[in-house]
Amino acid sequence: MLKNIKFKILNRNIALLFFIAIFIVIMALFWKSDLNTIDFKNQEEIEDFFTYKNDNFFVISGHRGGEMKNYPENSIYTIKKVLEKNPAIFEVDAHLTKDNIPVMIHDATLDRTTTCIGKIKDFTLNEIKKCKLKDKKGNITNYNIDTLEDMIVWAKGKTIINLDVKDVSAKQKIDLVNKHNAFTSTIFTVHNAKQALEFYNLDKRTIFSAWILDEKSFLEYKSSGIPWKNIAIAYVGYKITDENKKLKDLLHNEDVMTMIAAAPIYDKIKDKKDRYTSYQNIIKEGFDILETDYPIDVAKALKSLEQTNTTKQQYINR
């Protein structure tokens, strides 16, 4: 009799586990993230997303993650806040600690963006984790500094992070990205073809946000041996000029998308209507990617220009 009771309890537990498993599967099928994400299954998809196709498709990039009250730059928390409002990619920065761990911070010192003072390279990760981050206005937040590894892991399936050039080596960046199989959610800023070749020779999957500010730089990339499909973004300057309009056309002929960085000039326009008009003009002039301190505002400004009939929308989940 005791055996029969144990057998019935066992069967009941198995049945319960079965129904729990079915419930989890159903929830996974119907659950919708509260984030607006950009996601790629493989290398071909991220290359397709960043291929210029003359379809009026544009991308918003948050400079240092973005700027908001009580949200610090270069922080997962800030990126998540942006993605709650609209899809975007993010340019971010990393520096090395005393114990050689890349952490998410723009400056070489802790002074401006944290409650601590001193050079990052003089602090261990454990020491830096005690610092609280500040927002752009200097308000102290409840957030701590993320590691680059934290950022890479979190971004997978949600967005693309663009790692700017700081003191973290190409090899260390690539090793971290490779460790987490994150080449479909990570790209690398490079300032010239020589820097790009260092990455490309380490791993042919590397995709770049390349500074191409003049025709000489364009020709250096063209003769470098790096396929144009590995250039996701060509940064052509921080304002619209006749020269970068010509560069835009040259790059579009190679199927490369072009980016204007609004932070130095257009983001600083005080009048909101004029600022929104300046954002719209960048896209209307045919540039494809707008990098900004205010990705949520830019999304609002460009809402009327958004194209929904492009095949690239398949990678965006709202």
TrEMBL record:
Domain GP-PDE: 58-302
UniProt xrefs under SUPFAM superfamilies: PLC-like phosphodiesterases
Keywords assigned: Membrane, Transmembrane, Transmembrane helix
InterPro entries: GP_PDE_dom, PLC-like_Pdiesterase_TIM-brl
Transmembrane segments: 12-31
Keyword field contains Transmembrane: yes
Protein name: Cytoplasmic glycerophosphodiester phosphodiesterase
